[in-house]
Amino acid sequence: MEQVIQHSNPQSWYLVLSTILFSIGVMGVLFRRNAIIILMCIELMLNSVNILLVSFSAYAGNSEGQVFVFFIMVVAAAEVAVGLALLVSIFRNTASTDINVLSKLKW
Amino acid sequence: MDNFIELTKLMTPAILIPLFPLLGFLLITLFGKTLKKGSGWLASAMILASFICTVYIFVNLPEGQSLNFTVFEWIKWGDINLAFGLLIDPLSLVMLLVVTGVGFLIHLYSIGYMHSDEGFSRFFLQMNLFIFFMLLLVMGNSYLVMFIGWEGVGLCSYLLIGFWFKKDAFNDAAKKAFIMNRIGDLGFLIGMFFMLFYFGGLDFTSVMIAAQTHEKGSALLVTITLLLFIGAMGKSAQIPLYTWLPDAMAGPTPVSALIHAATMVTAGIYMICRSNILFALAPFTLDFVLIIGVATSLFAAIIGLKQNDIKKVLAYSTVSQLGLMFAALGLGVFSSGMFHVVTHAFFKALLFLGAGSVIHAMSGAQDIRNMGGLSKYIKITYITFLIGTLAISGIFPFAGFFSKDEILAQSFANHKLIWGILSFSSMLTAFYMFRLYFLTFNTQFRGTDEQKHHLHESPATMTIPLILLAALSVVGGFMGLPAAFGSAHVFSRYLSPVFEGSVSIMGAEHHLNHATEWVLMGIATLAAIVSIIVAYNIYISKKGLPEPDAEVKGFAKWVGNKFYVDELFDMIFVRPLMVMSDIFFVLVDKLIIDLFVNAAAWVVGFTGRTIRLVQTGNTGFYIFAMVISIMVLLYCQLVDPYLYVYFK
Amino acid sequence: MSSQILFFILASLTIVSALFVVFSKSPIYSVMWMIFCFFTIAGHYVMLNAQFLAIVHVIVYAGAIMVLLLFTVMLLNLNKESEPHKSPLPKFAAIITGGLLMLVLLAAMHSSTLPEYSSPAFSDVGYVQKVGTKIFTEFLLPFEMTSVLFIAAMIGSVVLAKKDKN
Fold this sequence. Notes:
heterotrimer; B: mainly alpha; 26 helices; 2 strands; 75% helix; C: mainly alpha; 2 domains
């Protein structure tokens, strides 16, 4: 009933794709100062790792990699929930989501 | 074979002997607050248990046998194997009986004496710890185990002298005792190193065997024995390390009785008796011991004449009696020395406890010039104290007579001059003891009305030990009846297996004929009686009183101030040390050491001040730092090896 | 051939949308591009025969997480360009660093020996049945632990987001 998709793309393509995606995520974290965007960039990085895991799983014919991806999604969901809650309470105190406003912890 | 089984059966009680006081110590340490007054009874019960074990072994140990066994392997390296072992032979049994027996009575006494002290439990836990270490000292089968006990009793002595630690003077006395003991202990320790190096072991059996392979009087043996004797000097308060003992009277009176009269201070004598073969092989050291012993005996007796503190008098008499014991050891009659240790333990413990009872009645006052006429108020103390005084003065048939007479007779056989000096110091002893006695108990009361109103006999826990010790002081001498009385000397025959080796090395003892012995006894008794009459004449008939300190002049002032020995030590040792430490403080400590230490601190501080600026508080900056670090790490770990190979 | 074209189209869409996420001025647009990006990633999953994950990905990320983000952005009223003017130097540095990291990662990948899959073993490993069996047998304990994690996260976010009484 279900049909397995067959193609012969080399796996290294997926490696390059996930590397590029990861670098974009890192760049975003460095580039932006809005905490929400930074949170999203972290999600981007997580997803690049997910692609990597799924590709290895698919090419090796082993489903454990996909189970890992599943768990990463779980953790990401929990992380976003807590992260946003933190953001909200920070916003309530500083009326801003700029990370550079939070610079009290120095020296 | 049967014999072997019988001996192994005694091992359990032997191990139990030191464990009971240790258990008492631990229990009181943990539950002292809950036990309250019960801790005194618990501590006493533990000592009683040890005493019972000791008696059991005493009864069951076959005559002439000894029990020597290893409890556990301890230190092992190379060829050296130092085991933790116990040795029970007649010598240690005698000491065990004294330590546990007299120790028990003193514990019992302390329940009454210390009843209102806030440190009640602390007192008993330290006393139990002391007994534990003393038992280790006596029971150890090697110098090392003995040394543990040796150090342990020193520690407990320190703790108990400074028991009332709120008074600075008492703390100073405790420190003085500890430091002086340390000087002696250093000698003991170096002696042990010598033995370990040259004899390859520290247990008594192997040391004695190894020692006999050396020539009699060889430099090595003399060195070792001298070092050991330095240890004994410190512990047993001999010239020049005796000044701590009178100061040690700062502790509670039961402590003075137990530690500074009956047990710990005799550890030096026990140690030399234990090493009798070693000392017998070093005649030079024995002569040295003799000279020190005789000198101490005379010197302390002279100082004792002019002391006005009831405990100080007893302290100097202890020093003097210890000198007498060392003189006996120096003469090579080890069993006579031990005999005097035992009788001295009885009557000196009795005297100290009696003094404690007097102090108790006097509400803490110790100056005999303010006492007098106490015989009417404290009858039991009065009678028992009289027995103790008669015993120490050497009046027939009390315990002191026999042991003292034995040493005097031996000294007469050896050297007339020594006999003369020892007899003279015995005379002085009789005089100052009766001076103490008359001033305390006879004529009129000289204290305040308040004290007079408060005078009362001590409770039963205090008087029962007094009565028992008085009984022992009366009959204790009969176990050492001299040959002149026609019966065998039970005590020295019991100890003879221990001293066989030294006797065979030194040759048989000089035996006086019985007529000479009778004459000597007569002279000694006569001398004592004359001293007593003189004391009676001065202090009762003429109602003489020692002058207040300020009016004492001439030689008496020298004596009253203990010949200024403390001041002399202060000038020779303490002051130069202080000056030197000042110099070192300024030159070495301040200039050199502080320079390095402060420089190191400055470098750390400077680095910290500089590097902390990195903590900007700017989150973006932190992220940058993190990403760049990760990049560098990745590059070093993953990329560099490849490029390195690639470019090669 | 068609699968290669498909991959390139999907990959370029993913990268471009990710770049838009980073460079959009308004947070709302960022979130929108992010959702788009997630859909393309789901496409990649389908191409890799990970149907179960593709569905879960769409539901969890696009459906739940991104909606949560969108809600937050809108509730906090961040729809305007909240970031004040920033000097170009950090931005430049950020781009350089990102590019450098990409280079390092690619070089690392190049220098390490990875398993070469000459003939990809495409099979049914990504189907619900296979993944589900794995999760409920071998990974049962971690799976149950995730529920604990979720409870902790829920309680934590409620506590954090609650207004202080004082």
